[in-house]
Amino acid sequence: MTGLTVADSSKMEDSYLVADGVSLEFASGVRALEGFNLTIRTGDFLSIVGPSGCGKSTFLRLVAGLLKPTSGTVTGGGVDGFAARKRERRIAFVFQQPTLLPWRTVERNVCLPLELRGGWNRQTRGKVAEVLELVGLSEFARAYPHELSGGMQMRASLARALVTDPDLLLLDEPFAALDDITRQRLNSELLSLWERVRFTALFVTHNVGEAVYLSHRVAVMSARPGRLVADHAIPFTFPRQAEIRSTPDFAALVGRVATSLGEASQ
């Protein structure tokens, strides 16, 4: 891994996540990322869109410390992903599938990260109850995953991520398998959670409207090997109401991001 070199050090001061010249080539010879650069300010919600196979999910795994870049660096809160894992820095990951353990209740699924750190006790039980209330699942604490709808399972997955009080929340197409009505409702609920907790969020999606609705910025990646080719600032203020999706300004911005995505796919 190379050292971090950033021309404008002032940008580092309020930045939580910095990817600098990141490239990744797998042992098979596939180049997933090449010269990828991205900076995210503390507390911002940033979405990434790009063609299928461009390296979006791979980048999240680099941020989480699950992969190492071939060259360049990815730092979060001043340390790289592997160091963050060793220091138990609070990074949480929400995958496309809820990945709940079917033999555990919702409560015990949500508690799992805390159990791995120190066991099941009165303090962790209280923290789980707090987070279940936050995502609207208090009444389903003793239910099992098969008793929940797809949207409720994803809420449980979000609760499991939030129970660790993450500084950085990584979300890899968490709503892709849901119907559009459920997806839009969970978009609004996710923003409500962000407004209350103010974690830094990195959200991967194929849905441009979803990206624009949720984010401060939408980053567009090129086809593989992935690199940043466009970065759209989203001017709408928070809190955002669902009705904004039907406005001309929203439609125009979705159109601009979609155009960038189309050009990136060529």
Set down the secondary structure blueprint.
Blueprint: H1 10-13, E1 15-25, E2 31-41, E3 45-49, H2 56-63, E4 71-76, E5 79-80, H3 81-86, E6 91-94, H4 106-118, H5 122-134, H6 150-162, E7 168-172, H7 180-197, E8 200-204, H8 208-214, E9 217-221, E10 228-233, H9 248-265
Helix pairs in contact: 4-5, 4-6, 5-6, 8-9
Number of structural units classed as domains: 2
Terminal Cα span: 31 Å
Q: Structural class given helices, strands, pairing?
A: alpha/beta
**Full CATH superfamily name of the largest domain:** P-loop containing nucleotide triphosphate hydrolases
Content of β-strand: 15-25%
The number of helical elements comes to 9
Uncertain segments: 1-12
Task: Write down the CATH topology of the largest domain.
Answer: Rossmann fold
Sheet with the most strands: spatial strand order: 6-7-8-3-9-10
Integer-rounded radius of gyration: 18 Å
Q: Major beta sheet, specifics?
A: 6 strands, mixed
Task: Tell me what the structure shows.
- With 266 residues, the protein is α/β, with parallel strands linked by helices.
- The protein folds into two domains: 177 residues, Rossmann fold; 66 residues, no CATH class.
- Helix content is 38%, strand content 23%.
- The protein is built from nine helices and ten strands.
- The strands form two sheets. It has a six-stranded mixed sheet, with helices on both faces. It has a four-stranded antiparallel sheet with strand order 2-1-4-5.
- α7 links the parallel β7 and β8.
- α4 packs parallel to α6, α5 packs across α6 and α8 packs across α9.
- The N terminus is likely disordered.
